[in-house]
Amino acid sequence: MLVTNLNGVRPISLSLVLLMACASVFSGAAQASENLNLNQALRLTLENNPELYQFKFTEVILKAQRQTSSLRPGLELGAEIENIAGSGVNEGLDSAETTVALSSVIELGGKRQARLALADSRFDQYTWQRQAATLDVLGALTTSFIEGLLTQANVELAEESLVLSQSLLKTVKSKAAKGATSEAEVMRARASLVRAEIRLDSQRNQLERQKMMLAQFWGEAEASFERLDGDLFDYEQAGSFDQLYDRVKTSPAMEVFASETRMQEAKVALARSKGRSDLNWQVGVRRFEESNDTGFVVGFSLPLFAGKRNQGDLDAALAARDSAQSARKFALLRLRGDLFQAYSLRNQNIEAVRKIKDTAIPALTSALELTRRAYENGRYRYVELVAAQEELLAAKQSLIDTASTALISQALIEKLTGQALNQ
Predict the structure, then answer these.
(1) How far apart are CA 335 and CA 245, in angstroms?
(2) What's the Rg (C-alpha) of the chain?
(3) Whole-angstrom Cα distance, residue 196 to residue 363?
(4) Are 384 and 375 in contact (CB under 8 A)?
């Protein structure tokens, strides 16, 4: 056996994350199964991850804020009594003038519409932030899952190394019993077997730690699965770099910056609307106690120089908008660099996997077999047999590491673009 060949489920693309987030919640099949595939892990995380659950509270807050922003100015009921408890003719209540009035504000400059536009832009930004955060969490989960597959393959390779060491010790003992080799070589073979046992134990313990870390993504303290189902050598067909970069421009990560710009534009519009003074009005009835007469009271007021007083807020909003636009350009440049690095690493490692798998490992396997026969026939020394064995194991280790690097790079590309490579 070369390395892990798990007959597993094809790793799910990160582009399906947003669809899965809107789908029905997974019922927890991982608990009822000894194996866990990436599809199950993603669904469990979407349902139970504490970091993603916090967005539910943010949604409630933003909806409440929008409801408040949609309110029109309230009405006020006031009462005023004049000419009481004075002196002379104003002594007592005989000359009192009582006014009961209803007052409010007429908003000018489209303030209510500007407030609603700002509330909507905040909710739009929240939506993209939630999608970007979901991709971040599930991207981290995917990377952890691939690293778990890597360690699982290392366990199998360590088991193979142990079998080779046991076979080597048996061969050396047989030659020593015939007097064809020294007892020192038996001791060296036994020490090599101990090292193989230690490495296997180390890899098994590391796998248990990684399984527990995976379970924490969906809020479990311990892993309830025995094995990871997946394939380290399953790669999607990728388009050109330019095609992938076009996807990055409309990915959730970039839409977060675009929504930030739209929100700042809404703040600018709101600041400009505040530069228009609101019209205060008042309508009421006044009663004159001295003559028992009544009369209507109507009043209007308009603050002066509101535009100048609001200029500082407008300048701040304009600066924040320009800053958001600049941040978006820089983020796009940074994401382009991240995408190119992942794209280049993926292609490089896929090619390396092909060469190691098709050329290096078959050659080293044949070399080990020939060296073992030659050692048994006394034509090669012990050190040459050990070297041949170590070279084969090193090539298989390189294959595992290279394959996992290609998969992690692929997962990063899908996270950056928000789509599967084959779309």
Answers:
(1) 9
(2) 37
(3) 23
(4) yes
pLDDT tens track for 309-365: 778 878 888 888 888 888 888 888 999 999 999 999 999 999 999 999 999 999 999
Lookup result for tokens 């309508």: 283
Helix boundaries (H) for 217-305? 241-249, 252-273
Burial 141-154 (b: 16+ CB within 10 A, else e): bbbbbbbbbbbbbb
Instruction: Express each pLDDT in 234-279 by its tens digit.
Output: 887 878 899 999 989 888 888 887 887 888 887 787 777 777 777 7
Backbone angles phi, psi at 225, to 5 degrees: -125, 160
Sign of the alpha-carbon torsion through 328, 329, 332, 338: negative
SS3 content of the chain, % helix, strand, coil (to 5): 65, 10, 25
CA-to-CA separations, 49 to 46, 134, 146, in angstroms, rounded: 6, 10, 19
Predicted local confidence at residue 10, as pLDDT: 36
How far from chain centre, in Å, is Cα 105? 46
Q: How far apart are CA 69 and CA 118, in angstroms?
A: 9
For the entire predicted model, the pTM comes to 0.74
DSSP state of 93: T
CA 50 – CA 42 distance, rounded (Å): 14
Amino acid at 385: L
